[in-house]
Design a protein that fits this description.
- The chain has three helices and seven strands, in the order H-E-E-H-E-H-E-E-E-E.
- It is α+β, with helices and mostly antiparallel strands and 142 residues long.
- It has a single domain, classed as Immunoglobulin-like.
- It is globular and about 45 Å long.
Length: 142
């Protein structure tokens, strides 16, 4: 009798454990207090002598959607970054899009229409800021 009760209890337990909820619960950020810092994840591109490399153009592609995220970076700020060999790949302007998730991005750099950089990154965001999870932020071109 005891064995039958144990088997029945284990059967119910196993069935309950197999009922997985695949929905992702979004964190409620309405009461989160964030710093006023504006985070931008950048990639530094230099040659072997340490001199900043100015790319003619670059792309930051969200590998899942195919969206080019680099289109939002332009103007005087972008020109300054370019002169320093720094290229923004993600900023807090994209925080809501990647909040409570991770994404794979590909950074592609071009000189004279030739692809010279192709680097993969994993990024994410919480309620306040974007963050780099993996990826090389110091690229040296030979």
């Amino acid at each position: 009798m005891f064995a039958k009760i144990v088997v029945a209890f284990l059967s119910i337990f196993l069935v309950a454990c197999n009922d997985k909820d695949e929905t992702v619960e979004q964190q409620d950020c309405s009461s989160t207090i964030c710093t006023l810092n504006f985070v931008t994840i950048t990639v530094s591109v230099k040659d072997v002598s340490g001199k900043a490399v100015a790319l003619n153009s670059y792309e930051v592609i969200d590998t899942e959607t195919g969206e080019n995220l680099a289109t939002g970076f332009n103007g005087e700020e972008y020109q300054y970054y370019k002169e320093q060999g720094l290229y923004p790949i993600l900023s807090d302007a994209n925080r809501v899009q990647y909040q409570n998730s991770t994404a794979k991005l590909t950074f592609k750099g071009y000189i004279d229409n030739e692809e010279v950089i192709n680097e993969a990154y994993v990024v994410g965001a919480d309620c306040c800021h974007v963050s780099l999870i993996t990826g090389n932020t110091a690229i040296v071109l030979e």
